[in-house]
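Question thread 4412

I'm putting together a teaching handout and wanted feedback from people who do this every day. The idea is simple: show students a protein as raw sequence, then show them the structure tokens that encode its fold, then repeat with a second protein so they can compare. Below is the first pair exactly as I plan to print it.
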Amino acid sequence: MSGGCDPTDGSSEEDQLKLLLAIDNSEYSVEAIKEVAKRPWPPKAIVRVISVVEPVTPPATELWYDAGGSLERVQQEMTKRATELTQKTSESLKRKGLKIESAVREGDARSVIVDEARKWSADLIVLGSHGYTGIKRLLLGSVASSVVSHAPCSVEIVRRKQTKKSRRRIE
């Protein structure tokens, strides 16, 4: 962490703990949000909640075209949903007494999260993981794995606790 987070040391803004919480609309992000909410963070900690809107590609929008949509409208709707998600999450974390900022960015989540951490000088990135392995991970990619490999700071990956039932489904 940059500098000390002891509130008695006359710390400056540079000494704040800066936590970047990367979320999407998945159950895995819900677990990451819960993890951040339940922790005892230093008094001057600041959490930036970020959601990344991936660029829309034509195969993903075929259903929208059928409904008379356009690529631009699809992108606008995705941005609107991401904004609502970050606002809702921010309000929830504020109720826990945390200082919060929120941001919605566009691009490839793997690079946008790392870039945001670098530009903001984050001390810690927290994000959820789907926990894919093998061929699924190869085909779908792993935002968490890429962030861990390229982040300029520490990264915490939050996983959902697996029940016996969910383990059987994966196997």
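The second pair follows. I'd like the answer to focus on this one:
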Amino acid sequence: MALRMDEPSVFVDRSGDSIPGVSEYEPSEPGGTDPGSLSQAGFSQECKKRLAFPRKTDMITVNEEPPQGGGEGKCSLMSMIEVEKLTRDYGAGKGVFDLTFSAGKGEAFGFLGPNGAGKTTTIRHLMGFLRCRSGSCRIGGRDCWKERDVIQEKVGYIPGEIHFFEDMTGTEFLRFLRWYRGVGVLNREKELLEYFELNPEMKIRRMSKGMKQKLGITAALMHDPAVLILDEPTSGLDPLMQNRFIELLRSEKKRGKTILLSSHMFEEVERICDTIGILRQGRLAEVDSVANLRKRHIHSYTVTLETEELARAFAKDFEGRAEGRQATVSAKQSLEDIFMHYYGGDQDDSRDTVQA
């Protein structure tokens, strides 16, 4: 079966879905070969042949002013990612339903939900791999379907499962991306390779899972994109590199980058994200800041002690309050506890009474 260049980021989707945009691909050089007609090895060879060609590209970036004219492409300058009433119904309760959220410049939005909740479906709409059947998705004021060529080229994207052209070396792959994006040699490639301690000289097929993940991260960030869309980005990384990645994203956020992060790692989301969206059966069960979620999900305990004096001392030690022989103290729940609250946890577990 012929390999299709279905995602211009050169991460190949092997899910079997029909990805929009394949037929719109046009070779950059007159008389060039359509990559869609090539086998994987053939496409890789075609990539290598083109590496020497300078490529003129639309250098519009998503952090510039939205296009003028009519209602197309207009949005608040503070809104970099906008999803409004997005619905895609696959039947049998599967899909996403009436999703609305946004993320501004310098903000990170965390997507939490179990497998099948709709996180990747939402991301595929944002990347222009799926057309919105109902609702809209915009990045930097641009319609994610109508202007998917610009979005796919400029946004930093890490898919949940990365598939490379494995007969290339990591160096060849990154060189191809420089050519594709038209960024030249002035980019962050060397900085990122050093930061993640990755030598890209070997064939990709010989790389470990962690090395491939580092290569994918480098590919996503090397052109210094204003918007990052990350689906399980630390999968396969050891704890040291996971921490480095988190610190890198915190730094990128301070530089004004907008981040959409889908992850099963609660600590990762909590350390990076300003706002959390909890997906349940394709719907947003909650959208709020981490701080507000914690305030609303405080677990209180009332302890009855032998004397009023002991109750006052107990309340003082745990920053609570005392009433007679009873002391009431509160404990903030972790993000994981809050998440589980929306997935079948006790809906009235905010207070417990303990005899002491």
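Top answer:
Good format. For the second protein you could add a caption like this: The longest helix spans residues 239-254. The longest strand covers residues 79-91.
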